[in-house]
Design brief:
The structure is a single chain. Helix content is 26%, strand content 22%. By secondary structure, it is α/β, with parallel strands linked by helices. The protein has a seven-stranded mixed β-sheet with strand order 3-2-1-4-5-7-6, sandwiched between helices. About 4% of the residues have low confidence.
């Protein structure tokens, strides 16, 4: 951690509303919540040097590999922070984020744990505050029950759904994969994915019937 201190944000509340001032020259700000070992964010940051990426992980030890890889690659457009997603409003101002990635979040099975899911009614209002109108949530999971639940909560929260698929890699690998996703793909596990777009308060999204297919993903 200390060797990678240059890529760590230890006091993100000091950057609230100032991310673009502190890291100028990038066209968008993207946030991955629950980055794990950081493979997805690091590889995506390499593909999009004009976008600034923030990788959030609650368990510090989990993201050390991502930190070390980002340092080795010399990436300037990525920062990591060890924080809890429930505190996002302390780190980002209204409309400051352009895109959120939720990759293979803990499904927290059982009704009594539902509020802990990162797509629950507890978290979606937070995302709506920090996303700009037109901002997106890119959601991937191997858990079909969580996917169905999340489609419902996204709709109830007023997000417009698109790119819905229940077998993302049916015709071969699509987009950047996480470590878990690579393992699942090798095992033949189907991956569910959708994009939820925040249209702005008061806007009514068109309803998607869930039958959409994704042929190409530009992460």
């Amino acid at each position: 951690m200390e060797r990678c201190a240059a890529l760590l944000v230890r006091e993100p509340w000091l950057l609230r509303g100032r991310w673009r001032d502190e890291f100028p020259g990038y066209k968008e700000l993207h946030l991955e919540i629950g980055c794990g070992r950081g493979r997805f964010t690091v590889e995506t940051a390499k593909l999009h040097p004009d976008v600034f990426f923030v990788a959030l992980e609650r368990v510090a030890d989990a993201m050390i590999i991502g930190l070390e890889k980002a340092m080795a690659e010399g990436l300037r457009n990525i920062r990591f922070m060890t924080q809890d997603a429930s505190n996002l409003l302390e780190f980002f101002a209204d409309g400051e984020v352009d895109r959120i990635y939720l990759n293979f979040s803990d499904p927290w099975p059982g009704k009594r744990h539902a509020k802990r899911r990162l797509t629950s009614e507890r978290f979606l209002p937070i995302y709506k505050k920090i996303l700009r109108p037109g901002g997106e949530i890119h959601f991937k999971t191997d858990n079909p029950e969580l996917f169905d639940y999340s489609l419902g909560t996204f709709r109830e929260a007023g997000f417009a759904l698109s790119e819905i698929t229940r077998n993302l890699h049916e015709n071969g690998p699509v987009g950047v994969m996480t470590d878990y996703e690579m393992k699942f793909y090798a095992q033949g596990v189907s991956i569910c994915r959708c994009v939820a777009t925040f249209l702005g308060e008061g806007e009514q999204p068109a309803q998607d019937d869930g039958a959409g297919r994704t042929e190409k993903v530009d992460e």
